[in-house]
Amino acid sequence: MRKVILRWKTVSLHGSQEISEILKICERLEILGHLAINEKSVTQLAEIKLKEGGDLEDFSKLENFEIIKVHEENDDGILVSLLCTHPLAVSAVELSNIHIHPPYGISEEKGMELRISGVSNSVSRFIRLIRMVLPPDNIAVQTFQKEDNRSIWESILTDRQIEVLEHATRKGFYSMDRNVTLKQLADEMNMARSTYGEHIRRAEVEIMNKVIKDLQ
Fold it and tell me: Is 145 in contact with 3 (CB distance < 8 Å)?
């Protein structure tokens, strides 16, 4: 098994015309999860931080993106369902034996970071594809022969999901007599309730999928 972190600097992202167009519209585009997948598109739950003067309608003018629904808006950004038909995104999510770990996205300040894990051969094929389309500035590879429990979970959950789960557990969110709300937890981490809740929900889905797989 192999876990890989791919990173691009902002200047490198401008090598892609479509990403350059996205960065003209927003400061940040973060994919929080995949809502639906088929052979031609991926419906993503995304948070968009528009630039001053930017408009969501500009996304639907892009060749491979369409805003399906606006869920809510706050100081962190706008939470939307986003339809993506870009061939690279679709093939990445559908590629067998690898897992793309949300959240991931594009930031004018930080560039882009993508975390994937899976069978070594499949990960290598995906990296070769990425190098042809948009070469990363940095590739960090970790290969697991015999993993301990923490390594297994770190390959399934993102650092942010682990951080949020640890925080929620520590504050009693999973206690039988819990008296803390998602809003309170999110405020403590300076995060929007919707974003905090989505990290929790996605982590729980990954954990349950792992548990069911182990029980089979």
Answer: no
- The CATH code that applies to domain 157-215 is 1.10.10
Quote the CA–CA distance of 210 and 212 in Å, as a whole number.
Answer: 6
215: left (phi over 0), alpha (psi -120 to 50) or beta: alpha
Torsion of CA 128, 133, 134, 135, to 10 degrees: 30
DSSP state, residue 159: H
The domain segmentation of the chain, as residue ranges, is 2-143, 157-215
Contacts of 168 (CB under 8 A, 6+ apart): 174, 185, 200
**pTM exceeding 0.70:** no
Mean pLDDT of 154-177: 85
d(CA 208, CA 214): 10
Contact 168, 174 (CB under 8 A): yes
Half-sphere exposure of 74 (CA within 13 A, CB side): 10
Q: What is the mean pLDDT of residues 186-198?
A: 91
Cβ partners under 8 Å of residue 118, min gap 6: 1, 2, 97, 98, 99
